[in-house]
Design a protein that fits this description.
single chain; mainly alpha; 70% helix
Length: 159
């Protein structure tokens, strides 16, 4: 952009047309499409690789961090030293060693203490609304701002 400062506007338009022509010719070439296909296949290959299974210790640590201490205010059982939290940590570790899945362990804890025992929202019902409504409002506000700026710019170009 600094090199084009001293040039006439018609020269700048000619350069941009030349760049556009070059870009279009690259997109029309077979080699560009082959490269794009190779990149897409590689991305799909890397994306389809599943991570290694989490170790028992990792699973226990994760579950301890998402299960709320039933007798505490906003503390996980990993953070609390309350007797019920210590007992629940031992039960979670036992369930993991028995081979129960994370979702099954969460179901067992919810069945005993209620839905509020999970620190991570369930993703359904009221929990979903509490996450979706603010995101929707922000999205709509962004679209309205884009529309306003687009109309404003369009009116300025008409004048």
């Amino acid at each position: 952009m600094t090199a084009a400062v001293g040039r006439a506007p018609s020269q700048n338009k000619g350069e941009s047309r030349g760049l556009l022509k070059t870009a279009m010719s690259l997109l029309a070439s077979r080699s560009a499409w082959v490269i794009a296909a190779v990149v897409a296949v590689a991305a799909l290959g890397f994306g389809s690789v599943h991570p290694a299974q989490a170790s028992s210790a990792d699973r226990i640590a994760h579950l301890d961090s998402v299960i709320k201490c039933p007798s505490c205010v906003d503390l996980s059982i990993a953070q609390s030293d309350a007797p019920i939290a210590v007992g629940l940590r031992a039960e979670v570790a036992s369930w993991v060693q028995q081979g129960l899945s994370d979702s099954r362990i969460e179901q067992l804890v919810v069945a005993r203490f209620g839905e509020q025992v999970l620190l991570v929202p369930s993703g359904s019902g009221v929990d979903l609304a509490l996450w979706a409504v603010p995101a929707s409002v922000i999205g709509v506000a962004g679209l309205m701002l884009i529309g306003y700026l687009w109309r404003r710019r369009r009116l300025e170009t008409v004048r």
